[in-house]
Design goal:
six-stranded mixed sheet, 2 domains, flat, two-stranded antiparallel sheet, Serine Threonine Protein Phosphatase 5, Tetratricopeptide repeat, alpha/beta
């Protein structure tokens, strides 16, 4: 029991918490050979949409262009790609809103990519929105020449759901790399002396739908580009002079120099020190976004010393690897409330 307490105290003194920015791998993995991207809006080409089937929709001509521009802008900002081209609308038959159309033929994909020096094509395949209006009433006091008079005010509430469907085409592998739908909700409110007046007061809908379209493009880019997450980790800062030196390097942000020192310590005759070195190298790999290598290094740490700290870290890394299938967490929610 005393030995266990002593070891626990030693571990506490030899480790330190640190807040680091780690690279989160994207949910969709692209081949390293994919460097040049073409972006196409398929929603405004030849369509089979039934004009009569438009109940509850808010039309915003700029929604689709904003979506593809948002995607192109986000991809262009990322150093992962060398060139991003927005090809505009092409004569590719689209389908009905709300479902994916038949995939574009590989001959067409190959020609578009060849003509535009693109390694892959990102396509906005469909865009749709549906709205539901509800009404409520409440009593308000209206100031008149007679004083305060109770009056009934009508309130219109409209929930609009905007959905966009995306695909990524790889012309070399002739494979659809990803097929995904982005969904965003918008809430609108309006007041008036009657139901009709309240409904008429629900304005700015087109602009809001256009804005959420642009946001959808930025969100979809998160499917393929890595991003940074702030996390708190524990790592070893002492055990030998080399560990103290490496800790000093890491605290200044020079993780490469620290890693070089820890790499030497992996060959230490002391299994305990070697385990600490492997553990810290796992942290460096996590910072650099290599979760596979990070798990391998943490496993080596555990194999050398059966450390519960290493086992817990393996669990954390495996959970992060599993969760990379999700979209990037949003800065805020996707709901915009507009009152008039």
């Amino acid at each position: 029991m005393l030995a266990f307490i002593a070891c626990s105290l030693f571990a506490c003194k030899s480790t330190s918490p640190i807040s680091v920015s780690v690279l989160q791998p994207p949910p969709v993995s692209l081949s390293p050979a994919i460097k040049n991207i073409a972006v196409v809006n398929r929603t405004e080409t030849v369509s089979t949409v039934d004009p009569a089937n438009t109940t509850g929709k808010v039309f915003s001509p700029g929604c689709a262009p904003e979506s593809v521009n948002g995607l192109a802008d986000e991809l262009d900002k990322n150093k992962r790609f060398s060139d991003v081209k927005y090809l505009g609308n092409k004569a590719i038959a689209a389908g009905a809103p709300g479902r994916f159309p038949v995939p574009i033929s590989w001959d067409t994909i190959a020609k578009l990519c060849r003509d535009n020096n693109a390694d892959a094509m990102f396509v906005l395949e469909w865009l749709d929105n549906n709205s539901k209006m509800t009404f409520a009433t409440h009593t308000v006091n209206v100031i008149t020449s007679q004083g305060k008079v109770a009056n009934t005010e009508h309130q219109a509430n409209m929930l609009t759901t905007v959905k966009s469907g995306w695909r990524i085409y790889d012309p070399v592998a002739k494979k659809i790399i990803d097929e995904f739908v982005i969904t965003s909700d918008l809430n609108f409110k309006g007041q008036g002396i009657s139901k009709r007046a309240a409904e008429a007061a629900v304005v700015e809908r087109e602009d809001a739908v256009q804005e959420v379209g642009g946001r959808a493009g930025h969100e979809y880019a998160a499917r393929v580009v890595p991003y940074r997450l702030k996390v708190t980790r524990t790592y070893y800062v002492s055990g030998s002079d080399n560990f103290k030196l490496a800790a000093a390097k890491s605290k200044t942000g020079d993780w490469d120099a620290a890693a070089a020192i820890w790499q030497k310590e992996t060959a230490n005759k002391s299994k305990k020190l070697a385990a600490k070195a492997f553990y810290n190298l796992a942290l460096v790999d996590e910072i650099n976004g290599d979760l596979k290598s990070a798990i391998q290094q943490a496993q080596k740490s555990y194999d050398n010393a059966n450390s519960s700290l290493a086992q817990n870290y393996i669990d954390v890394l495996q959970e992060r690897k599993k969760n990379k299938k999700a979209l990037r967490p949003r800065e805020g929610d996707a709901t915009a409330s507009i009152s008039n």
